[in-house]
Design brief:
Elements (H helix, E strand, L loop, with lengths): L2 H29 L4 H20 L6 H26 L6 H8 L5 H20 L1 H6 L7 H30 L19 H17 L10 H12 L3 H12 L1 H9 L12
Helix pairs in contact: 1-2, 1-5, 2-3, 2-5, 3-7, 7-8, 8-9
C-alpha cells in the first residue's frame, strides 16, 4: 500500500465531501427543504469512491478497485433513488423541521453546524474502508470474495426491506397499520441491519493489507449511528409515541436489529 498516495487521497476526499455538502446546502436553502441531504447521503459515498478510484490508478489492484467502486456505487445510487422517491412531494422531514425550530440565530451557520458539518464528517469517516481498499496492491482472494458476499447479504436485506415497506404503504388497505411482514417480521429494521452489513463487507475489502484493519471505525460508526442515533433509536421513540400498544406488541415479538424468527404472541 502506497501510504503517501493514500494520504493525498484522504485530503482530496475531504475536499470532495465538503463540496458535496456545500452544494447540497445551497440547493436545500433555496428549496427550503433540508431533508434533501438525505437523498444526497448515499450519492456522496459514490463521489468519494469515484475520486478514490481515479487517484488510486497505478497504486491499487485493478480488480479490487473496480469491485470497490461498483459495490459502493450500486449501494449509494439505489439508496439515493429510493429516498428521493419516498420523500418526493412530502415537504420538509419532521426531524429537520423540529431542528430548524430550535434555531435562534442566523440560518446558514446553524444548518452548517447541526446538519451539514456532522453529516459530512460522518460520511468521510465511514468511507475510510472504501478509500483504503482502493490502494490494496495485492488483495487476498478469500477476503475479496468474503467482502462481496457479505456486501450482497446486506444489500439484499436493505433493498428487499425497503421494497417490501414501499409496497405495503402503497396498498390503501394498509392505511394506519404497522408493517410487520416479510423481513420486517424478523427484524424491526431490515434496512438498517442491511446497511450495517454492507459496510462490514466493504471493510473486508480493505483488510487484505494490515492498515485496512484500522478502517473498522467506518462500519462501527455507521452501525452506531443506525442503532443509537439518527436511525433505530429516533424512529422507535416516535413509533412508541404514535403507535403505543401496537408498537409495543410488535417490539416484543420482533428482534430490534439482528434478524431472527419472530417470537410467538
Amino acid at each position: 500500500m502506497n501510504f503517501s498516495a493514500l494520504l493525498i487521497n484522504l485530503g482530496a476526499t475531504v475536499v470532495a465531501v465538503a463540496l458535496v455538502m456545500a452544494l447540497t446546502m445551497a440547493y436545500a436553502l433555496r428549496r427550503r427543504e433540508q431533508s434533501i441531504v438525505d437523498t444526497v447521503w448515499g450519492l456522496g459515498f459514490v463521489v468519494v469512491a469515484a475520486v478514490s478510484f481515479v487517484l488510486s490508478a497505478g497504486h491499487g489492484d485493478p480488480v479490487q478497485r473496480w469491485v470497490t467502486l461498483a459495490l459502493t456505487a450500486v449501494w449509494g445510487v439505489r439508496l439515493g433513488v429510493y429516498i428521493h422517491a419516498r420523500n418526493r412531494g412530502k415537504g420538509e422531514d419532521p426531524r429537520y423541521a423540529a431542528l430548524l425550530r430550535r434555531n435562534q440565530g442566523k440560518l446558514v451557520p446553524y444548518v452548517i453546524r447541526t446538519i451539514y458539518w456532522p453529516q459530512g464528517a460522518i460520511m468521510w469517516v465511514v468511507s475510510l474502508p472504501v478509500q483504503a481498499a482502493m490502494y490494496v496492491a495485492e488483495p487476498v482472494p478469500a477476503l475479496l470474495w468474503a467482502g462481496v458476499v457479505v456486501w450482497a447479504v446486506g444489500f439484499a436485506f436493505e433493498a428487499v426491506g425497503d421494497a417490501q415497506l414501499a409496497r405495503f404503504k402503497r396498498d390503501p388497505a394498509n392505511a394506519g397499520r404497522l408493517m410487520d411482514r416479510g423481513l420486517w417480521a424478523w427484524t424491526r429494521h431490515p434496512n438498517y441491519f442491511g446497511d450495517s452489513v454492507v459496510w462490514t463487507g466493504l471493510f473486508l475489502l480493505a483488510c487484505s493489507h494490515w492498515a485496512g484493519l484500522f478502517t473498522v471505525i467506518g462500519p462501527v460508526l455507521m452501525t452506531h449511528m443506525l442503532v443509537n442515533k439518527s436511525g433505530k433509536a429516533l424512529l422507535e421513540r416516535r413509533m412508541s409515541r404514535s403507535r403505543g400498544p401496537e408498537f409495543a406488541e410488535y417490539a416484543a415479538r420482533t428482534s430490534g436489529f439482528f434478524p431472527r424468527p419472530p417470537r410467538r404472541a
